[in-house]
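Thread: "does anyone have the structure for this chain?"

Original post by V.I.:
We have the sequence but no experimental structure in hand. Need at least a predicted one for the grant figures.
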Amino acid sequence: MKELIEYITRSLVDAPDQVDVRELKTGNRIRLELRVAKDDMGRVIGKSGRVANSIRSLLRVAAEREGKQASLEVIEPQ
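Reply from O.Q.:
Generated one for you, tokens below.
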């Protein structure tokens, strides 16, 4: 699932080398933290969060196929 998020995000942003996805596992749950360049935040979130919510939907489907639960958090760059 980490690879799926990396692939989708790198396809969207201008600085694909700055895409960082961290996977935190707790039993049956997987939490993914996504970090991108500050200039690419708008591309990843989209208008009213539509792009981010679409990525989350794809992640949930991929997790369901493996019998797991997954969530995605977009981390604000500093």
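V.I.: this helps a lot. The chain has a mean pLDDT of 94.
O.Q.: and Strands lie at 20-26, 29-35, 69-75.
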